[in-house]
Structure formats: C-alpha cells, structure tokens
C-alpha cells in the first residue's frame, strides 16, 4: 500500500473511532442524568463519559490495528505500540459538557511511532467530530482536508486587522494568565474580534474550514492539537509555536491559521511572552 493509501486508511479509522466515542457521549447526554466528574487539576475535569468514550475509541482501533499504540488523555499509561501511535482526546470540552454548553468534540489522530514526543512531522491523519452538529472534519497527509466529505481551505486574509481569532484561556497554566491577558488585549485591538468556545480541537477545525482566521492558546496537550494540526495543515494553514518554530506539540503553545494572521499574532506575542 502506498503512503497516501496508508494515510487514507488511517483517516478512515480515525473517523470511525471518533464516531464510536461520540456514540457514548450522545447516549450520556440524552439520558438526562446528572454528569458527575472528578477534578484532575484546577478547572481540569474528567467524567465517566470521557473514560467510556476513550475505551470505545481504543477498542475500535485495536480491532482494526492490533499492533498500534496509543497516547490518550484519560489512560493511566501510554502504549507506544508498533509503527503507528494514536493520539486521542475522547471529549475535548469536558467542562462545557458537564454544564450542558453545546460545544465539545472527539479528536483522534494517527502518528508515526518514535522514541520521543509526537511532532508535527509524525502526524499522518486525523479526524475531529462534533456530535452536536454532526460534523466530521478529517484529513490525511498529502490528501487535503474535508468537512463531511467536502474539501475545505483555511482563509488567507492579507492582514491581522481583518481577521476573526479564536482562543482558549490558560487554565492549566495560571502563572501565564497575566501574560495571556496582555496578548489578548493587544490582539483584541488589532483584529475583527476574538471568540472563546472551549474546545481547542474544534477551534482548529473551524480555522481549517474558514469559519475563523487563526487560533492561539497556551499550554495545550498533544491530544488537544494532533488531529487539528493535520486537518489545518492539509487545508493550507500553518501551525507554529510561540517562537515561530514547529515545536507546538512539545511546548503546548500554539498559533495556527493563515500565514498573514499567524505572522501578525506572533509579532504581538513576541512583545509579551518570555
């Protein structure tokens, strides 16, 4: 099988796995039962639904690819597996889900295995599924990106001043809140506006299909960014860390979107970020 063919197969598995996780989420949401949760860290929550959705995702992938490994948000340990490892966020937007705020998603990506952390170059395919809107974003390396099977492209505006931006607050890095707010203030003055919905994976998917022009956030985890990175890259966008490099999967600090928007955001970040 060709590399493109392999990537397409992985994309199909990612989409099937995302739907499997979403079935668990939908069933819990439609049950009408109160959603209980545990607090992993300050404002960082996990529910039984996260864990059950992750199990459903992993079970489906293992059935199709028994020798593959996993990096998953809720698992107690990661399994490096064979030549492919799957990077999974079973419920991106858990706080929203707990409160009934209808913005959350399932994010599944496939990456080459290696001795170190997953890098952007390792990423081969990904899918982000929105169970509320029944929207499937997916991409495979070298094959472009789609929304419900239709090709999508990231917006390429000429200047930051005409851009709509998406962001997330640094809830895992409270010590960076003051720096973040300074950056936020400058970007608010220099753009059409900033929105914060609460699912980084969906933010990246929305930038990939042109609903917004760029996204920035501090201190994310690999599973927050992996599928979105593939989809946005294949939609013609770029993904950077706060230095303008490509280590966002390692640092957790991400700027993503059209080239001019990303360049404009990085110039403002440079004023404030150490």
Write the topology of this structure:
Elements: H1 3-31, E1 37-41, E2 44-47, H2 48-64, E3 69-72, E4 84-92, H3 94-99, E5 105-112, E6 123-130, E7 135-140, E8 144-147, E9 150-151, E10 164-167, H4 177-189, E11 193-195, H5 200-208, E12 214-217, H6 222-234, E13 238-240, H7 248-251, E14 254-257, H8 259-272
Parallel strand pairs: 3-4, 10-11, 10-12
Antiparallel strand pairs: 1-2, 4-5, 5-6, 6-7, 7-8, 8-9, 12-14, 13-14
Helix pairs in contact: 1-2, 4-8, 5-6
Report on this structure:
With 274 residues, this protein is an alpha+beta fold. It folds into 2 domains: 3-151, Fructose-1,6-Bisphosphatase, subunit A, domain 1 (Fructose-1,6-Bisphosphatase, Chain A, domain 1, 2-Layer Sandwich); 160-272, D-Maltodextrin-Binding Protein, domain 2, CATH 3.40.190. It is 38% helix and 25% strand. It has 8 helices and 14 strands. It has a 7-stranded mixed β-sheet with strand order 3-4-5-6-7-8-9, sandwiched between helices. The chain has a 5-stranded mixed β-sheet with strand order 11-10-12-14-13, with helices on both faces. Helix 5 packs parallel to helix 6 (222-234). The protein starts with a helix and ends with a helix.
């Amino acid at each position: 099988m060709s590399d493109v063919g392999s990537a397409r197969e992985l994309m199909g598995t990612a989409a099937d796995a995302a739907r499997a996780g979403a079935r668990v989420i939908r069933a819990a949401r439609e049950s009408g039962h109160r959603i209980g949760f545990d607090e992993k860290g300050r404002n960082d929550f996990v529910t039984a639904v996260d864990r059950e959705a992750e199990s459903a995702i992993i079970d489906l992938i293992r059935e199709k690819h028994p020798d593959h490994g996993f990096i998953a948000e809720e698992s107690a340990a990661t399994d490096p597996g064979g030549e492919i490892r799957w990077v999974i966020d079973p419920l991106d937007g858990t706080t929203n889900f707990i409160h009934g705020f209808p913005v959350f998603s399932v994010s599944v990506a496939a990456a080459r295995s290696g001795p170190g952390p997953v890098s952007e170059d390792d990423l081969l395919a990904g899918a982000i599924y929105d169970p509320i809107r029944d929207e499937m974003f997916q991409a495979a390396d070298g094959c472009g990106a789609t929304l419900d099977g239709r090709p999508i492209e990231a917006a390429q505006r000429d200047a930051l001043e005409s851009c709509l931006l998406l962001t997330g607050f640094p809830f895992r890095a409270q010590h960076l809140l003051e720096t973040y707010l300074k950056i936020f203030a400058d970007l608010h003055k220099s753009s059409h506006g900033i929105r914060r919905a609460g699912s980084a994976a969906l933010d990246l998917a929305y930038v990939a299909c042109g609903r917004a022009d760029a996204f920035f956030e501090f201190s994310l985890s690999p599973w927050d960014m992996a599928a979105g990175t593939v989809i946005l890259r294949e939609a013609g966008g770029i993904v950077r860390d706060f230095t303008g490099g490509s280590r966002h999967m390692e640092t957790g600090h991400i700027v993503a979107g059209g080239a001019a928007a990303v360049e404009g955001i990085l110039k403002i970040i440079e004023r404030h970020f150490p």
